[in-house]
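Action item from last week, closing it out:
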Amino acid sequence: MDSDQWTENAGCRDGAAGVDLAALLGRAAGGDASAFLAFYDRTVPIIFRYALAGCRGDRDAAVSLTRVIYREAWRTADQQFASGLSPLAWLIAGGCRQDPSRTITEHAC
C-alpha cells in the first residue's frame, strides 16, 4: 500500500459504520479479523496523522510506524479494556509499544 492510501482509507469494508470502536476491538480480541479490519478502517486516518506528525512529515517513516501500531494492536487487542483508555486513545498512547514510555508524537522516526 502506498503512503497516499493511508490518508484516504477511511471507509468501513464490512459496513459496520454504526458499530462502536470498543465493540470492534473487543471482537478483534477474540480473533475476529473482519472486526479488526473495520476498526482499522475507522481509525487509520487519525493514527496516520499522529504518526506523520511524530515522524516530522516523513511519510515513509509514518507508514512504517502506522504498520507497527496496528500489528501490535492486533496482537494486544485483549489488553485495551484493562488500560482504562478509549480504543482510539489506547492506539495513540501505545504508538510505539516497543518503548511504552513514549507516545506517537514523541517517536523518533
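Closing note: Helices lie at 3-8, 21-29, 33-54, 59-76, 80-83, 87-93.
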